[in-house]
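[SOLVED] Predicted holo structure with fe (ii) ion

Edit: marking solved, answer below. Original request kept for reference. I posted the sequence and ligand SMILES and asked for the 3D complex as structure tokens.
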Amino acid sequence: MVPPAATASATTSPSQASVGSPGAPAVKDPAKDTILTPRFYTTDFDAIAAMDLRPNEVELEAICEEFRKDYNRHHFVRNGEFEGAAEKLDPDTRRVFVEFLEQSCTSEFSGFLLYKELSRRIKTKNPLLAECFAHMARDEARHAGFLNKAMGDFGLQLDLGFLTASKSYTFFKPKFIFYATYLSEKIGYWRYIAIYRHLEQNPESKIFPIFNFFENWCQDENRHGDFFDALMKAQPDTVRGFTARLWCRFFLLAVFATMYVRDVSRKEFYEALGLDAREYDKVVIAKTNETSARVFPVVLNVDHPKFYIRLERLVSNNAKLSEADASGAPGAIKVLRKLPYWIANGAEMAKLYFTPAIRSEQFQPSVR
Ligand SMILES: [Fe+2]
Ligand SMILES: [Fe+2]
């Protein structure tokens, strides 16, 4: 489902100015859609417009005031360090790094489209929320634009207008949008800050100057996450009661498992930064889980002895699925080959899901 205005919004995104102009970088075809690639979302705009914010209006006002300050207004400015930096990478590192840039750019851009569309659709009925979404769209456009410029250093650029029109949009009810975007903002914060801190300690692994920008960048994601935290508290039923507990568990698991499988499958990128993908993900998962306890009623028991054993089984099943996909076999044979791994993945996910979760008030009483 394509929000009709999204296409028009994309044409004003800052990152496309040079696409198609003489001497501009080649336009890169978007990566093939899989369960692991970033998604584009749409939602029930009328339901969000009608939301009563009174239960947590003061906090939302305060967050909006922070957004207005626009701390990173002058942050995303390229400097001389970028000149010639791309040429220094060897071909293998270059390949995995461009993939990283593309995935990151796509997910930042997906945030931009959703927030922009939300702010436009609810402007008259819910001005405070509309303003918050507009500020977040501003930030995400900057992030996506900055990443796309870095792709330009490698002679490539994502055609964001084409991406807007050609990607399929997943419809989520508002509360599911809140869970998914809250988690993606907070996980984004922990991912960026973990890389930044690691490279601060190991400057010899800083393969590209874009990482110097991560510290302030991740503060944007942190503020975005705080906004969704406050918004869920303004709609207390989203994070209260039995059904909310089931859904929060589901989203935590889906987000953690997807990230783990994807990062391990492109571990070469993390190796290029001197990081072990598995260790890096364990830190990011533990931190995001802990942060989520501030708003979600439950979090996962990521220290359960079977937690990572099961995620590893997903990793190996996924490798088999990719092998089957890559084989030249006819479609029906491929499906037959893949079937046992799909079933195995379903079973592992079910076991992970039914591992008893931890009530947040028991997990981190001090922050609630
Ligand atoms: Fe972002
Ligand atoms: Fe964000």
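OP edit: The mean pLDDT is 90. Thanks to everyone who chimed in.
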